[in-house]
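Limitations

Structures in this collection are predictions, not experimental determinations, and the ligand pose is part of the prediction. Treat each record accordingly. The example that follows, with cytidine-5'-triphosphate as the small molecule, is included so readers can see exactly what is and is not provided: the inputs are given verbatim, and the output is the predicted complex.
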Amino acid sequence: MTVALILAGGKGTRFQSPVPKQLVLLNGKSILEYSLDIVEVLNDIELTVLVIDPSYEQMFRDITEKYNKRIEFCEGGSTRQESVYNGLTRINELIPLKEKLKVLIHDSARPFARSVFQSVLKKLKTEEAVVPVIKTKDTVYIIKDEKVVDIPCRDHLFNVQTPQGFSFSAIFDCHRLADKKQMHTFTDDGSLYSAFQKTQPAIVAGESMNFKITDKKDMLLGEYYLSKGKTER
Ligand code: CTP
Ligand code: MG
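Predicted complex:
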């Protein structure tokens, strides 16, 4: 069994809208709905746990009403890592048999994730952890105290996307350990897994279209992809 853990508990500070960005409409549909629509038609996924900010619970309830697949709500935390941990804890309570349980952890701020969901699910059949990556376009400098301390070779630099897939027990154990050791600064689950599991996640090709909506400008790119009909593959 596979569960989708959809993160919608953030406040969207950089987006600067009256409601969190995942509730904002993109071509007449909330950004969150794009991810829920993907999950709705994926046969491998039986349940969604949706992590939310309870201040907006009614808006989330109104959005999720139309879906046939089971969606359970869970309260988010003050960081993404905490929101994931809360979601995993909820899944742990909901599902008694964990042996073959898998989880796909996805940022609802990435609306065009359909084909990446499929690639991650496929690879997850044989791997314990799967992360989609895409080559970094820019050269990256590592700067500390306003001094360049390293310039890593760009050929080896990749940006990481979601959904990221895991065997449930493996990623839940890692999150529990991170919490126990008070390590609360992980910004994605692949890096948390790699820190505690002492092995690296498998990778699959991500997609430039699977970008994260961070600020208002990103909506224009979203509208562009939608106008070109590229997002339904
Ligand atoms: N997220 C979450 N709980 C948090 C923080 C983030 O569930 N405490 C979710 C967001 O809803 C988003 C995803 O994690 O879908 C990626 O986070 P990001 O793009 O940074 O969104 P926000 O944290 O909401 O935005 P900002 O950083 O600009 O405040
Ligand atoms: Mg954030």
